[in-house]
Amino acid sequence: MQQATSSLEANKDNDNQQDSTSPSSHQSFPLNSNNVSNRRTTITEELFNRGVLYGKEKEYEKAFQCFMKVAEECECADTQFKIAYYYHIGLGVEKDIRKAFEWYLKSAENGFAKAQCNVGLLYRFAEGVEQNLPKAFEFHLRAAKQGITTSMLAVACSYELGMGIMRDISKSFEWLLKAAENGDVGAQYYVGHAYEIGEGVEPDDTKSFEWYLKAAEQMDVRAQLAIGISFYCGRGVTENQRKSFEWFLKAAEQGDKSAQFYVGCAYDSGEGVEKNRYKAFEWYLKSAENGHKDAQFNVVYAYEKGDGVEECFSKTVFWLAKRLNGNFQFIENPEEQFGLKDFLSEDLAHFENITEPVIVRFEERDFTISYELLKHSKYFSTMLNLNWNRFNENENKHIVLDLRSIQSEIFQEQLDCSQIFENYINCLRGGLPTSCEMQLPVIYLARYLGDDSCILKIMKKSSLLMRYYFLFQLESHTKLHVALASCFSSKLAPTRDLSEGVLETLLVQSELSWPAKERIFGEYSQRFKTPISLTFSKSFIINNYDIKLNR
């Protein structure tokens, strides 16, 4: 299991669900598992039902007043929960998370399961109360034992990450399984995944398939893809190419790029469906447009050979450029912009001969650079290989790469673009930005330009932990990097290139083991005047345990 997502447990007045908190099911006694003796009288029961009716009619102020009057007369958990929820959302009363927590806590202590769940969420995210992970776990566990799926997922995640309780993958799986058996489609997918890889339970392909199927039948696209792969490989089920295709198609129609690629492959090879090169191309193209690299390669081949689509050299070059650089959006209309009709295939092989200076133009200034410095950039190589000097020249006949129209795409943040590009050029010439605050924007720029050599140059001159930081920021970490970072020893001397922001980024990575985080935190927590413990706790929870409070 990776992350669980759930919502604020709400006692809604405007739906038609019949549950223990719906208007039509209220009785003249408190509705909570402990059967608290403080019963509503006939008068307070009438007030409560009137409040429910006002809520359904969206007269929230009147509804809130009714619930408050009931609460003054008796300790009824469901009434306390409604008051908490109204404070939390700001229905009929000014929003006040602190008061919401107080009323949730009263309801929770009276045994109301949904209130226990919300108290757990508020403790976890420090909403209306100081953060307390052990208490968050305690209240989630209470609610989970009463059948609240949200809390089952919370308990599973807590055991998996060791948050508020000692880490225990087996117990994490047990609670994940309970949530799956309760019908949660995400939990069903993760149970299937756990059985597939043997996480917290013995690997079992048959059970993995069964749980994937439950989730797939509820339209979980990840599970549909997994079922397609299972039928294709005969993993946990008898191999069946036709059924494999059917499930790939279901996931593909929901927009999954891998499934779209597999559907294209099936039409291409005739596995599980009648061979059809035209339909194969259609699905390859959908997948390619979603960024699937192998699909982009097949689209390049199709346009080059006229396989399933009319041969088109300009589109061949376009998709080749897209495949080389996933962020490449500069030749959306290549035939008009670059006159590709006039180009021959052999033109693409001659751009290494370019020796004259290249001018890169931004709003702030021009940069004059030799091509030798740009040849490692897939972005600039694509531009130069398309013979830009035919269309963009200055008075000295130098190639001009005018990037002003896409400057905002290249530099995502409102930073000094000119300074970042200058730092990039200095890096190409052998220099290196001194701080991580200067290095990271250069790395982002190099990634956009497809210049891996520049990124590697910065990496090689960085400390061990700085490398991990860059890898996590670039989302390019592998299991090997994670293993190395998790083995980080407290004996490793601090290095000057580590800032507070770098440490915080490392500490919130869900892939790193908790002991590794403790060692990193303990080694560096004394280096900064402002303690990072609170920031670390908040960001760690948000990044590692994705339960959001919604209405």
Automatic annotation (TrEMBL):
It comes from the Eukaryota. Residues 17-36 have a biased composition (Polar residues). Pfam families: Sel1. Residues 1-36 are annotated as: Disordered. Transmembrane segments: none annotated. SUPFAM superfamilies: HCP-like. Belongs to the sel-1 family. This is Predicted protein.
